[in-house]
Amino acid sequence: MSKEPKKPVEEEPVEEKPVEEKLVEEKPKKVKKVKKKRKGAFHYYKIEEEKPKRLLPFCERCGPGYFMADHGDRYSCGHCGFTRFKPAETSG
Ligand SMILES: [Zn+2]
Fold first, then answer.
1. CA of 68 to the centre of ligand 1 (A)
2. 21 against 56, higher pLDDT
3. How remote is the CA of residue 8 from the centroid of ligand 1, in Å?
4. pLDDT tier at 78 (50, 70, 90 boundaries)?
5. What is d(CA 76, CA 58) in angstroms, rounded to the nearest whole number?
6. What is the per-residue pLDDT for 69?
7. Distance from the CA of 57 to the center of ligand 1, in angstroms?
8. pTM of this prediction?
9. Ligand 1 midpoint to CA 71 (Å)
10. 54-74 pLDDT, tens per residue?
11. 5 CA to centre of ligand 1 in angstroms
């Protein structure tokens, strides 16, 4: 009986890869200009008898100062998204 000498496991030569320095190119960020239509206070008030009358309700969540947008049958707050349905009109 002859014992075969175990062959040493050939290790794959590890090639040292040169670390590529990644050049970070600073790209100028394009700032998108969003045109905001500014609505003045005149949008929220209706001059009546020389006295400003509040047309839109304030948001119940955000409190006074935050108007709710009129969406026909409901109001919605653009600040928190709170939606409040208008009270049904009782006619007849
Ligand atoms: Zn709100």
1. 7
2. 56
3. 74
4. very high
5. 10
6. 92
7. 11
8. 0.38
9. 15
10. 678 899 899 888 989 998 889
11. 82
Which of the four pLDDT bands, split at 50, 70 and 90, describes residue 12? confident
The rounded Å distance from CA 64 to ligand 1 centre is 9
Distance 47 CA to ligand 1 centre (A): 25
Distance 89 CA to ligand 1 centre (A): 24
The radius of gyration of the chain from alpha carbons, rounded to an integer in Å, stands at 35
Looking at per-residue pLDDT, the higher value among 56 and 1 belongs to: 56
Which pair of structure tokens corresponds to residue 38? 């500014």
DSSP assignment string, the chain: --PPPPPPPPPPP---PPPPPPP---PPP-PPPPP-----GGGTEEEETTEEEE-SPEETTTEEEEEEEE-SSEEEETTT--EEEPPPP---
